[in-house]
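## Example record

The block below lists the input lines for one assembly entry, exactly as stored, with component labels intact.
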Amino acid sequence: MSEPAVAEGRGIALHRVGAMILRHWYLLLSSWPRLLELTYWPALQIITWGFLQSYIAQNDSFFARAGGTLIGAVILWDILFRGQLGFSISFLEEMWARNLGNLMMSPLKPIELLIAMMVMSLIRLAIGVIPMTLLALFFFDFNFYAIGLPLIAFFCNLIFTSWSVGILVSGLVLRNGLGAESIVWTLMFVMLPLACIYYPVSVLPPWLQYVAWALPPTYVFEGMRALLIDRTFRADLMLDSLVINAVLFVASFVIFLALLRSAKRHGSLLGGGE
Amino acid sequence: MNGIMPLVADVPEKLSAADLRSAAIDVDRLVKVYKTVRAVDDVTFRIARGSITGLLGGNGAGKTTTIAMIMGLVLPTSGRIQVLGHPVPAESHAVLGRMNFESPYVDMPMRLTVRQNLTIFGRLYAVPDLRMRIAQLASDLDLNDFLDRAYGKLSAGQKTRVALAKALINEPELLLLDEPTASLDPDTADWVRGHLENYRSRRSATILLASHNMLEVERLCDRVIIMKRGRIEDDDTPAQIMARYNRDTLEEVFLDVARGRDREAAQ
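Predicted structure tokens for the full assembly:
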């Protein structure tokens, strides 16, 4: 029974991150309804909005010129929304399974748990969004991947925002129990009007534009419209988004740790109920 | 209540000199207040390495909160906890891999098979030769018949054995058990107790268990700490406690304590 060095516990252990990814991978493979749910809504979304875009394009020369802005916005919105859901649902699975106590009592660290949730959000996103982009290509002749390198900037900024929101809502559920679960499904929708997904920021009243520009996705959707309508890649917008994302990401992690500490103070880790 | 126990029980054949110097668990003036309720009120005890200690008390006595604070799942309002020589929660990272627990307040993923669950926890605890370890646990705890069945489809007794396998996956030096035989039939419960005894003697492990089953405590424990309303009511060997209350069984002592009869009245 020799005592391992204290230092053994410091740093991030990839084997523990890998264990958590494996746990959720096993879960996905064991449940076809979970897999179906990942693709079902994105597919419905793209079909509905794709037909709408086709209809508008036949009747309006502006939309005919700005081919794909609606479909592109739908796909990018889904990256944002599904990225957060992928993160948060993986976290909720631990609470539904009453497994969080086991994990918190194991050598797994909060940062390792969060990294695993981020990887799972990417996996869940890929399962949901890749078929969506293929539908857009075959049904509506919109090649999402033709966006090219700017797509990487769009994707990185959106996924960072989705993780930040995911971390924040997971902390809230951790602290307040499953009674706060609905926040997982609804918080991101505050972005829907404010991040100007389907219309330019200039449409908003001036005072609300300040709010919109405080949200990282706003820059992405403005950037997407600049690219698809004006054929211009706005690197400045992507950098601004990245800076806000960095602040948001750090803040969400700090808040998560504070909520975890609060949950330990209030003894809610053992219950996790309502 | 003497509160002073030897730091090492009678079975420490595998303990190093450094291990022998410190208690497995050292709790000093521990207090936990939830809003206006003092769930744990100025509790002090030391648990010897290699011992089995029972934490007794009625519902709301503070047993689970005390164990949760030792595990680092609940933060104390005040007081100090040292586990395997390290302050908790400040140095939890140094001891979490060397301890484990089983509690009715937690569960395991239902859709994953027993083998998958044990694989995940084995990896979290960095268990070497994990396949061998799972095979060994499956053999020891008689899990082979349902090793590849979903955990959620098992009976209560089978789930308890799997939870015990999870708690033993890393061969912990310190095992914290909250009601380890709750809702088990007498045969399975007896079988679990036998396994815990074997594990303690084979590994020189320290076990702290909270239980309402007095026969279980009498059989397993070298020492008993009785809690009531968050405070330690008595602390000694089962035989000494029964003698003090002039009772033949711990169950009678438990009833005396629960119903507010003190030792003198019981005598």
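Chain B touches chain A through 49 residues (CB under 8 Å). The domain at 17-106+173-191+200-266 of chain B is CATH 3.40.50.300 (Rossmann fold).
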